[in-house]
Amino acid sequence: MTPFTIETNQYLTQETQGFYHTDFGGVNLPNNPNYLYKLKNDPHHNWSDDWIRQSQEQLYRVLLIDLPEVQNHIGKNPLTICVVPRAKADNTYNPNQLLFKAGVRNAIITLGNSFIDGTNYIQRHTNTKTTHLRQPIDGYNNDGSNPYVGITNATCNISNNVVGKDVLLIDDIYTRTVNIDEDAIQALISKGAKSVSFYAIGKTVFNH
After folding, report:
1. Nearest-5° angle of CA 105, CA 56, CA 96?
2. pTM metric for this prediction
3. Which of 9, 17, 31, 107 is the most exposed place for a label (fewest CB within 10 A)?
4. Does domain 2-131+144-204 have CATH number 2.60.40?
5. Per-residue DSSP letter, 9
6. For residues 154 and 21, what is the distance between their CA atoms, to the nearest angstrom?
7. Which residues contact 57 (CB under 8 A, 6 or more apart)?
8. Residues in the chain with pLDDT < 70?
């Protein structure tokens, strides 16, 4: 687990403490968290059930180690755990395409009362552009807007349960300049969260 600072920009009005588990540089690089691809379980990949199960176990092990370390570093107890939603509206995915969120929830349950389950506190109701796709995929309609200031508030419902809470916002991959995470952090701050920190499994070693 490595700390870093998410800097202010037009999406985010205050510096935010961030953490990540490992570098994310592409499928062929050593130590890349390739299991994250499988947790999305999109139909064009056709992952086997065994690969998906192994990926869930990898995520679970990482979170059980990292989340207590993040909490100790932040010094907030309890921490309310929120998850950045996938790009499309939540009701367009089946449960097997939301395995990252489910993995975070399972880790919270195991870790106990130091963490509050807020994994459903941010719900996407309107499609946005999937930003990580390098090229079009046959049969996949990547509709919706590219990131813009305020996209989280415009396309998501945020629970009032974040008000007054110390929040740890989790995403699978953080990429500087995409600004989805920055915008989500700002949305939580504007909603009334007492504090917001950030954690990702992977942090890209390049920008796109």
Report:
1. 75
2. 0.93
3. 31
4. no
5. B
6. 30
7. none
8. 43-45, 132-141, 144, 206-208
